[in-house]
Design a protein that fits this description.
The chain has five helices and eleven strands; from the N terminus they run αααααβββββββββββ. With 267 residues, the chain is α+β, with helices and mostly antiparallel strands. It has two domains: 1-45, no CATH class; 80-259, Sandwich (Protocatechuate 3,4-Dioxygenase, subunit A). The chain has a five-stranded mixed β-sheet, with no helix packed on it. Strands 4-1-11-10 form a four-stranded mixed β-sheet, with no helix packed on it. The protein has a two-stranded antiparallel sheet with strand order 5-6. A hairpin with a 6-residue loop joins β7 and β8. It is elongated and about 80 Å long.
Length: 267
């Protein structure tokens, strides 16, 4: 380990992983160090610049709470989240496309019945949602576990509103009926702002699970939103852009079909 310089340090660090008994971990660490060191050499990173990077990552960690994962937001805005989704979930023909998880999911959403108002007082124009969950063969998937969360008309999620405490608005756990359908009431969502990087066009977020099928995490984006072509997390997909219809009752209506891939098949 003597006489290490800027040319030999990378090999020395990689060699230090030799005792790692997890082949995949060793592969990841070795590649990470190699690319990170190449980056430092390529831009001739100064000590002051590296310290600023460390301060930035420290501040990112300090912003994390039980209801907000700032590192997910960072991963989203760097495009890493969508890259991993694209690599791990290539989309077979006819299957609903996956997209990023986002930073505002929490596991303590209320379990609600068919037809429930998931908004629970969140501000916004009323929205009637009617979705169908099927397999690739078109078979309706009954009793599928559907998690939904959304921003309100001010672009805010419930966990961003300190005055709500643990009260949940704009999110729920629901189940499809015997015909694979799910109906609930919400509000028309608005793009939420990323504090340091402008608006993000996420709308209704869905996580859908059904036996013998791949879990689907996806979003629906409202057509006409001004940020569809400047989404800072790179998650917009043409197939996920939907139109809201105006019903005879004067309310806005959303209808959509989600298609899940069988287990063992990329989704």
């Amino acid at each position: 380990m003597r006489n290490i310089d800027e040319h030999t340090i990378t090999e020395a660090v990689v060699r230090s992983f030799g005792r790692c008994d997890n082949p995949r971990l060793k592969e990841i660490l070795s590649s990470l160090v190699t690319h990170l060191h190449d980056f430092v050499r390529d831009v001739k990173l100064t000590e002051a610049e590296w310290m600023e990077g460390i301060r930035f990552l420290t501040a990112t960690g300090q912003k994390c709470t039980d209801t907000r994962q700032e590192f997910i937001l960072l991963s989203d805005t760097l495009g890493v989240s969508m890259l991993t989704v694209a690599l791990n979930h290539p989309c077979p023909e006819g299957v609903t496309e996956s997209t990023v998880f986002g930073p505002f999911y929490v596991d303590d959403a209320p379990t609600l019945p068919q037809g429930a108002d998931i908004a629970n007082g969140a501000p916004g124009e009323p929205l009637q949602v009617d979705v169908l969950v099927t397999s690739t063969s078109g078979t309706p998937l009954a009793n599928a576990d559907v998690r939904v969360w959304q921003a309100d008309e001010e672009g805010m999620y419930d966990v961003q509103r300190a005055e709500l405490g643990s009260e949940r608005r704009g999110r729920a756990k629901l189940r499809t009926d015997a015909e694979g359908r799910l109906r609930f009431r919400a509000v028309v969502p608005t793009a939420y702002p990323v504090p340091t990087d402008g608006p993000v066009g996420h709308m209704l977020v869905f996580m859908i699970k059904a036996p013998e099928h791949e879990t689907l995490i996806t979003h629906l984006f409202i057509d006409g939103d001004p940020y569809l072509d400047s989404d800072t997390v790179f998650g917009v997909r043409r197939s996920l852009v939907v139109n809201l219809e105006r019903g005879r009752d004067g309310a806005r209506h959303l209808r959509h079909t989600f298609v899940l891939a069988p287990s063992g098949e990329p989704s």
